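Something for you to look into today, if you have time. What I am after is a single protein written out in full by you. I want to see for myself how the chain folds. Could you add the entry underneath, on a fresh line?
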Amino acid sequence: MFAPVRVIGIGSPFGLDRIAWDLIAALQQSEKLQTYLDRQLMLESLDRPGVNLLRYFEAAEYVFIIDAVIDDNFSIGEIKDYSIEEISSAELLQSAHSFGVREALSLAQTLNCVPQKTRIIGISVGQENNQHFDWDGIISRLAACLAPEIAEVCDAFVRGTVT
């Protein structure tokens, strides 16, 4: 697990909470990322990791955390970047599980083990009964959007020009 760039999809096998897992699966198939897998890049789906999320920060230099969110400020299927400060005060990222992403990131901040570059990406899933959307199409679009950004970060590690 030495890859300096980690993309972590948080979720569970239930309903739309698996959207980040589906995005990770699509990214694993992306031709743009194939040359980086294993050396510079790790793509991982985690089932409600809680405090174990911190384990994936070890030796990481750039981490993308992807999770489903309910946020009325943007449309279903859109992604939004969140800062750690936003997450700390946001009710939308509270977990039904006693120790969720918000709590894990708060602990990581306290322990000073948040990777220097951390990008937190929320995928808007709306309310519970949104199964009728074209989620496969949404996942394909999001993977096509994120893969070049992830490849650019990996390429910076290869060139030694990460900032």
Summary: The chain has a mean pLDDT of 87. The beta strands are 5-11, 41-47, 62-69, 79-82, 117-124. The two ends are 22 Å apart (CA to CA). The chain has one domain: 5-159.
